[in-house]
Design goal:
The protein is mostly helical. The protein has two domains: 56 residues, no CATH class; 64 residues, no CATH class. Helices cover 51% and strands 0% of the residues. It contains six helices and no strands. α1 crosses α3, α2 packs antiparallel against α3 and α4 packs across α6. The radius of gyration is 34 Å and the shape is rod-shaped. The protein starts with 16 loop residues before the first helix and ends in a 14-residue tail after the last helix.
Length: 154
Amino acid sequence: MASTQTYIETPLVVDDDAGVTASMALSSLGESLRSAYPYMRTEALNNIVDHMKSELVSKITEQQPRMAASRARICFTDLPAEIRNNIYELVVIPQAGHTLLEIRTPRDATLSPRTYAKIPTLLATSRQVRNDASPIYYGNNGFIATFPYSATQS
């Protein structure tokens, strides 16, 4: 004769999301076990489910620092544009009167393109960063080129 006892869930007291998750994951476990093992005592069945909940909560809790660290990581390009622009301004706009690049050469020497094409390395990190930061760099910095002129060079 099959047992007509129903599973009585004994609550597992947990104050965090792990307990709620474990309860949801194991909500129908008691009924499934009762169907599979109709002659198992209710107390034994409750103990099995409670043990499984405890294990599940323990394993979830054990993983929470790793999950929090993963959640805390954010890609720079995921930041809002306003924050990225503030960072770009701090990086690519020098303080007033600061010389970004000064090139001194002998009088007869010519400058090669590689000598004076130095740009902030930030602009070389990715296309998105270059596209975002270039207008700030070129739009907010003054570029002055001076060439010494000698009266004897006519």
